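1st attempt posting a full record on here, be nice pls
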Amino acid sequence: MAEWESFRGIGVDLVEVERVTQAVKRWGQRFLERVFNPTELAYCLPKALPFPHLAARLAAKEAAYKALATPGLSWRDFWVENVEGLPCLCCSERVKRQCGSVQFQLSLSHTRQHAVAMVMARW
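the predicted structure (as tokens):
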């Protein structure tokens, strides 16, 4: 518990997988490259069902915005990487300049219809 004494914020987001599916069908690669990091795409796209995984990462980005409550950040300022089989939220240098040395705790879950993410941020 002491490790989270400098707890700053929490964010939760729920994304409908169909919303992501339709965005990819409508805008294709342009949407994918605008919203997702190459690491995320390399992880998600080879999957038999990539859209729930993409939706979970989109939810993580939204949850991070909510946790930080910092205006002016973009989709590409956050990305999810798998480290030793666990999802970890990473952030850009711009986030670090605006928020300092922020660290995240991330939880993701998804079904074929919905994806949810919870982010806790601390400094």
